[in-house]
Amino acid sequence: RRDLRPRRDEFPHRSIEPLLPSGRGMSARPRSTLKELDDTEEYLESAGLAKRDGAACRKYLTMVEEHAVRRPACVARAAACVLADAKSASKLSKREMYQAMELHAYASLDLGDVATCERHVRALESVFPNSTRVGRLLGCMLEAEGGHDDALKLYDDLLKQTPSEQRLMKRRAACLKAAGRVAEAIEQLVSYLDTFMGDVAAWEELALLYLSERRFKQAVFCWEEVIVAQPQLGKHHRRMAETYYTWGGYENLRNARKYYAAALDMSTASDLRAMYGLVLVDKKMRHLEKTSKAAANAARAAGDVAAGDLGSELGKDASIFLPRLYKAACPGLVPVVEKQMRSAAL
Amino acid sequence: RTQSWGRGVVTELTGRLETDSNHVSMKVSVTERAYVKLVLHSLKHPTRDVFGVLVGRTVGDGDLEVTDVLPMLHSTISVTPSVEIALEQFGLHAELSVGQHLVGVYAANERLGDLQLGHNQAKVADVVKGNAPGKNAVVFVVDSEKINQALELNGGPHVLQMLIKDGESTKWDLVGSQSGHIALAGGATATLAKMATDDAIKKVTDFDDHLDDPGLDWRNGWVEDAMGK
Q: Which of A217-226, A313-322, B186-195 ranks highest by mean pLDDT?
């Protein structure tokens, strides 16, 4: 009997999943945890790099690649150790070696060492001609030297070759942002998200870009996409609340309070920003109720509709809870916090 | 010109804002502790926008003395709640602990060569200026291109650029001819070069870190102890 189950790489949705640099889809479970990465990094920085522990360096580089974190100092040293040492270099598979070269190149860009990056780029170009992955690295190198226009030209050429290359489109948006052309970066990200709307990190980045332009309505739309994709993370609700709070106005403040309450709930009362947020929202809403007639009417209407509006007590509860939290966590700051809560209550 | 000031040596920056008819000059002296904390905070987040507040007082006729620095954020200012809470707490801390006020802000922008205040940063600077005694406030921007030099062990030039907003202007302007009026004490930059180790850079915490973990203290009291050694 033939095996009629579709093979993994024939699932159509795989092509639009945001890809990790190693090429695996995001639904694949990571093979290590962030804590392991941090522990390995600590070991390397304290003793491992000094005694040139090649195996630990290789493991560290694999984890960095997997989690896509930015740790230039340690990565540069680990990659140099792995590549330079002839004994450990012979144990590397070709794939690991090129990955190490790529990581070293990106790390040296972060450290301002363009020469090392150029060396690796030329080597990788000779092995992988016409590769978009090497093209991205080359573009980053051009950006690091300040040649944003050259980098953009390169990205455009590569996109003509492979129009639906996700990372290239995102790289182009990042280049525009680095060049200070925020409006164009927004356009690029919007056109990217029109096609690849499942990319949560891109929605977050777009929300932050909109916020930097003070376009709050669009930022809220982006946060909504993020919350729909990852509803269990209190962090997104908290950032939505911050956006509503900054936007201002009585209705937006009420929304802010809703999202702060959700964030606090999801963090089981440990999110300090949400607690402070509730205090701030309460203070602003009471100020608006006193000064603005429209706000006072809205408050009265809300009071009629929902008897026992629990939200109105949240600010006061938070302002009572915060000094207690500080007494346990950071007693030196208790006088400052108590004075602040007293003035907020007035 | 340098003065000994208790445990630290004072670095003086003199800014001269020239208008067509008369010369306006505001002298801003910066203590060693303030300078070290400021630059350590910028070194901790080299790829991000860094922002903080200057604590100090007015001396003489419109001159300022910056005695301490309170690091606030290491992300671009886009939403206001953290900033509002931080400003209030910093102001209260300055008054309750040393009877001083917030006399300005500092920023280290994420893009190299960017020595201006962004829109939101300028707004925060305006708020601090409005609440400062005599509305006397100053803005420092870190010039990242000078940091490598500054960390040389014999103490290079300092890395700060000064911005002032005088009465009529609507934006914070770079003070002209800064280099001619900057008198540097060897003490502050040499101390910074000595203290800018990986451990010290990791240890600096700002208000943002404190909000993630209330146990982290944004007052950074450990800097004075480390400097004293």
A: A217-226
- pLDDT tens figures, B163-180: 888 777 888 888 765 433
Q: Which residue of A has its CA nearest to B93?
A: A336
8 Å CB contact between B184 and B9: no
Interface test with B, best of A252, A276, A346 (most B CBs within 10 A): A276
Tokens representing B228 are 């004293």
- Angle in degrees, CA B88, B90, B94, rounded to 5: 120
Which residues of chain A have a CB within 8 Å of the CB of B92?
336, 339-340
Q: Tens digit of pLDDT for each residue in A275-306?
A: 999 999 999 999 998 888 887 887 777 765 55
Is the four-CA dihedral B156, B205, B124, A174 of positive or negative sign? positive
- Chain A neighbors of B119, CB-CB under 8 A: 214
By DSSP bridging, strand B138-142 and strand B160-164 are antiparallel
Closest C-alpha among B15, B13, B12, B11 to residue B174: B15
Spacing of C-alpha A232 from chain mean position: 16
pTM attached to this predicted model = 0.84
Contact (CB, 8 A) for A325 and B214: yes
